[in-house]
Every structure is written in structure tokens, then in C-alpha cells.
């Protein structure tokens, strides 16, 4: 059976399965991996273990190496560069009067590419903006449009429950949430009460939906109509009268 490790690149992102490449890892170790975005620094959350081949859907990428002190130092230095790129990009967006909102900037570990995440109501022609950014930072620029739920996941915040957002703590993937689920739980259909900070229906509505749908079945409860209850009442009265007559005899 192939050996695998689980690696998380971002605090709020999902984890990925890689081949340890013959290296023994412990939980919490920092590693350098190749992703679809380029070289990135990740953290081991699942140490070396064997996996069933049938559970692996595609060929495993190998871990490039265990992170060195230089890699970790580079990652820290990138934060300042990302902040600089964020401010510069916001300035250019305003100067060019573009209808878009910049959310976050990420640089790859080898500084070969910068990814600018943004939201917009529609399609945006950002070709001139990309030229501004490429001229300033001398690397490959990628503009990635995201939705409002991904924005909340990246930015973070507190929900109406007072706790940190589910999507920034433990929720790795987004799942569809419908108004029907809110109705199943007898929630007040007030947008301010059932919407998250992203403006969409709260993800936590999904968590308890199955309990409401199958609660009666699991408890093996029986429901009676008013007519049935009246029949039971009449039958009970008849039985009581019969018992009373038997006692008198």
C-alpha cells in the first residue's frame, strides 16, 4: 500500500494528500510542496501512514523537501511583500476606477508568481492592471476572482453566535444551503437572522438539517390525528364503563 501524508497550506484551507517521498514526518513539521500555484510552504497535519490504493484518485505528488530555516524565513519576508503588493494594487484599482474589490495577495515561496484575489459583480477587464503589477514586481501575475463565501473564509470574522466563522476554523468545503432547510428547522425567515457575514445563508443551517428530517424516525415516534385521538378517547371510556359494570356485578 502507498504511504501518504496530509498537508495543509493555509490555516483556513482544506488539506492535500502527498507522497512523503521517503521522508519521515511528524505532525506539525513544515514542508515545501509543489501545488497548482507553484512552490508553497505547508504543514504536516497527518504524518506518514499507509493508504488503500482504491482511496487514491490520482497520482500522488511527492513532497519536495522538509522546510529549512531559510524557507521559513523567506515565508516571513513574503508577508511584507504581500502587504506592499496589496496596497499598490488597491491604489491602481482606485486610479483606474475599476469596479472590483481586492481581498488578498499571495506570493509563491520561490517568488515566481503573485496571486491577487478579488470580488466583483461581473467580469472585469484587468489587463492594464496586470501590466502595472508586473512592471512593479517583475514576476508572473495571476488575478483570481472569488465569491463572497470565499471572501469571508479568507478575511475571517465572528458570526451572530459570537464565535469565529466556521469556514475559517474547521469547515474545509462549502456545501449548498437552501431556504427549505431553514423552514425544516422552524427558523424565522428574516435575512438578518439566517444569513452569515458573507450575505449567504449560514452554513450551520446545514449541520442540523438531518436531525430535523429524521428525528421522528430515529425516535420511532407515532403521530396521531385529532380524529384518531377522539376514537381512542371513546374507546377508553367504553373500557372504563365495562370495567365499572363488571365490578358492580
TrEMBL record:
Residue ranges of every copy of the PSP1 C-terminal domain listed in the record: 61-146
Coiled-coil stretches: none
InterPro entries reported in the protein's UniProt record: PSP1-like, PSP1_C
Gene Ontology cellular component terms for the protein in this record: cytoplasm
Domain of life: Bacteria
Pfam families linked: PSP1
UniProt protein name: PSP1 C-terminal domain-containing protein
Source species: Thermotomaculum hydrothermale
Amino acid at each position: 500500500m502507498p504511504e501518504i501524508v496530509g498537508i495543509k497550506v493555509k490555516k483556513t484551507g482544506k488539506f492535500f494528500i502527498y507522497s512523503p517521498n521517503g521522508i519521515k514526518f511528524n505532525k506539525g513539521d513544515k514542508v515545501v510542496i509543489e501545488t497548482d500555484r507553484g512552490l508553497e510552504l505547508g504543514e504536516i497535519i497527518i504524518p506518514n501512514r499507509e493508504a488503500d490504493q482504491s482511496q487514491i484518485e490520482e497520482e500522488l505528488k511527492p513532497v519536495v523537501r522538509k522546510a529549512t530555516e531559510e524557507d521559513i524565513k523567506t515565508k516571513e519576508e513574503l508577508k511584507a511583500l504581500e502587504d506592499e503588493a496589496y496596497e499598490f494594487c488597491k491604489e491602481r484599482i482606485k486610479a483606474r476606477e475599476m469596479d472590483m474589490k481586492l481581498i488578498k495577495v499571495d506570493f509563491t515561496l520561490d517568488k515566481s508568481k503573485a496571486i491577487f484575489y478579488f470580488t466583483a459583480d461581473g467580469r472585469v477587464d484587468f489587463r492594464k492592471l496586470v501590466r502595472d503589477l508586473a512592471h512593479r514586481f517583475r514576476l508572473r501575475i495571476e488575478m483570481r476572482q472569488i465569491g463572497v463565501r470565499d471572501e469571508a473564509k479568507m478575511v475571517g470574522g465572528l458570526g451572530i453566535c459570537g464565535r469565529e466563522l466556521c469556514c475559517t476554523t474547521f469547515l474545509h468545503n462549502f456545501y449548498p444551503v437552501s431556504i427549505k432547510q431553514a423552514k425544516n428547522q422552524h427558523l424565522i425567515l428574516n435575512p438578518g437572522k439566517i444569513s452569515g457575514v458573507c450575505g449567504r445563508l449560514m452554513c450551520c443551517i446545514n449541520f442540523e438539517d438531518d436531525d430535523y428530517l429524521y428525528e421522528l424516525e430515529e425516535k420511532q415516534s407515532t403521530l396521531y390525528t385529532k380524529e384518531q385521538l377522539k376514537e381512542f378517547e371513546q374507546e377508553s371510556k367504553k373500557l372504563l364503563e365495562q370495567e365499572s359494570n363488571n365490578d358492580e356485578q
